[in-house]
Design a protein that fits this description.
The chain is mainly alpha-helical. The protein has a single domain, classed as Ribonucleotide Reductase, subunit A (Orthogonal Bundle). The protein is 62% helix and 0% strand. This is Diiron oxygenase.
Length: 307
């Protein structure tokens, strides 16, 4: 594994050799497969769904709302309504994101290239399917269903069809998981929100620990492979794509539908204002700090994703 005390690598220089990265990946696959077997649960019987969820309660702790720290001030009722809508947006983003990542993984499982990882990938797909179900189940039980997916972005396709293709695909998955696990890890222990919401966050965080660990080991290996396969010429383009994809993923948390539900007359203007707020930029940097450090140590880029 990468030494957490090592300084950032120069651009394009892997922190470990390709052989070392592959050895780390092989070790991680065995350990994570064992953990997935040990921690298996049936999502359809795992949760005790209440008849209703209190609409007078916070569904998300105020520090995690997209307006937190800005000059946008809400009455308590509107702030609570925003917490409801942003929880539904959060769960909906999981549903749409999981559906996309499952497809990307499914087309690779049991191919010669991914044969060593295929057993774990079965667990990965199964667990992500469980997550998609229970987040959608909450939205269907206690709301008007899952929020619609945003219009397809040009970023939805890989940046290249060359040696970086798999690196980009699994980086997108890793970015998605790191972003949302930041919230899962913290809201899973909340005593302010209804227990069923905290439980969904906590269960998802428990599984995502394995998925993030796998993702980092795989992305490391794919990075070294791409560099050794003549990918240096496209390196800067790929690095810029990854930075842009991180920005796009963070911005997905700011859904105008949520501001409209909280009573804002011009929700698109609200979204633009919040995304441009320097306080929110600091929050975004903190949310993605761990992932940013990973890519810098890998050698993908210097500086930061938001520079």
């Amino acid at each position: 594994m990468l030494d957490p005390t090592c300084p950032p690598q120069s651009r394009g220089t892997p922190a470990l050799s390709r052989n070392a990265m592959n050895a780390n990946l092989e070790t991680a696959l065995g350990r994570l497969t064992d953990l997935s077997r040990r921690d298996f649960y049936n999502p359809y019987t795992r949760f005790d769904w209440p008849a209703e969820v209190d609409r007078d309660a916070w569904w998300m702790d105020p520090p995690f709302l997209t307006s937190h720290g800005t000059e946008q001030h809400w009455g308590i009722a509107d702030a609570i309504r925003l917490s409801h809508a942003e929880t539904i947006n959060f769960f909906s983003l999981h549903v749409h994101g999981i559906r996309e990542l499952m497809g990307a993984v499914a087309v690779r499982i049991h191919t010669p290239r991914f044969r060593p990882a295929s057993e774990y990938l079965h667990h990965f797909i199964g667990e992500e399917n469980d997550h998609m179900w229970f987040f959608a189940e909450f939205c269907n039980r206690y709301w008007d269903g899952v929020y619609p997916a945003a219009a397809p972005s040009p970023l939805a396709s890989s940046a290249t069809d060359g040696p970086w293709t798999d690196f980009v695909v699994f980086s997108r998955i890793l970015i998605f998981e790191e972003l949302f696990d930041y919230y899962n890890a913290r809201l899973g222990g909340s005593t302010l929100i209804p227990p069923i919401i905290a439980e969904l966050h906590a269960v998802h965080h428990h599984d995502e620990n394995r998925h993030v660990a796998f993702g980092k080991r795989l992305v490391e290996s794919l990075y070294a492979e791409a560099m050794s396969a003549g990918g240096e010429a496209e390196h800067d383009d790929v690095a810029n794509y990854i930075k842009t994809y991180i920005r796009h993923s963070v911005a997905s948390m700011y859904n105008p539908r949520c501001y409209a539900y909280a009573g804002v007359d011009n929700p698109l203007a609200m979204r633009r204002r919040l995304l441009a707020d320097p306080v929110r930029a600091e929050v975004h940097t903190e949310i993605m700090r761990r992932l940013d450090r990973f890519y810098r140590r890998l050698g993908l880029y210097e500086g930061g994703w938001d520079e």
